[in-house]
Write a structure and sequence with these properties.
single chain; about 0% strand
Length: about 70
């Protein structure tokens, strides 16, 4: 196996891991969404903002690695 193949395989593995982690994050987010919200309204807004920023970052990452 050549160096190019080795790096392509490693890149594909990282992409797969990133997709799996993103899916896990989505599932955890959905589970949190089903649980009753506790705490201050400002905290919930920060959580939603953080999740939105993470989704945007993941989308940019996915676009960079889409073949």
């Amino acid at each position: 196996m050549g160096m190019k193949d080795k790096f392509q395989d490693q890149s594909q593995q990282w992409q797969e891991q990133a997709k799996q982690k993103a899916q896990q994050g989505r599932e955890q987010g959905q589970q949190r969404g089903q649980q009753p919200q506790r705490g201050k309204p400002g905290e919930r807004m920060r959580d939603e903002e953080t999740e939105r920023l993470q989704r945007e970052e993941q989308d940019r990452f996915d676009q960079d690695y889409d073949v």
